[in-house]
Amino acid sequence: MRTVSDRIRHALSFEIIGLILVVPIGALAFDHPMQDIGVITIVSSIVATVWNYLYNWGFDHALQRLTGSVVKSWPVRIGHAVLFEAGLVALLMSFENFNTTLMLVGSDAPLPITMYGQMREGATPAINAVSLLVMLAVGGIASLFALTSKPES
User: Fold this and answer.
1) Residue 134 belongs to what H/E stretch?
2) Please, what is the angle between helix 125-148 and helix 4-30, to 10°?
3) Distance between CA 52 and CA 54 in Å, rounded?
């Protein structure tokens, strides 16, 4: 099982890399200043980092208790990732109080509502291309890591 320092290092490095990628791309894609995108991403990153630590700690302990090991098969890894992302979306949506904000918007919508509106209306080809490249890069890096890493014991 991973140590506390390993978990903290992993969570922080993942979020820092995410911030470096998301802030400039978000500023370009949504035509907002980097400061506006930065505030949203930093707050979201803090929530994601705490969730990452707690979720992975709890998942590893549950897996250890149920199977006697923390070694994950591919189906378990996929389930782990899907449950993690679903939980993170639920946390971030409740954190932003999205539904209340959507109902109380005046003439000048805040950035989360603007982003939501742009996604609902359809993204430009540039946004679609950038998101595809980011997804392919992340998938490639994750696959490369999975293929080259040694199994946990």
Assistant:
1) helix 125-148
2) 160
3) 6
Instruction: Map out the domains of the chain as residue ranges.
Output: 4-148
Tokens of 19: 């911030």
Query: How many whole angstroms separate alpha carbon 137 and alpha carbon 51?
Result: 23
Tokens 């782990």, located at residue? 80
Contact 112, 96 (CB under 8 A): yes
Rounded to two decimals, what is the model's pTM?
0.56
Q: Both tokens of residue 93?
A: 């949506």
| Per-position pLDDT tens, the chain of length 153 | 678 888 788 878 888 888 898 889 888 887 888 887 888 788 888 888 888 888 888 888 888 888 888 888 888 888 888 888 888 887 777 655 554 554 555 556 666 666 666 666 666 666 666 666 777 777 777 777 777 766 665
Cα separation values, 62 from 10, 30, 52, Å: 20, 40, 15
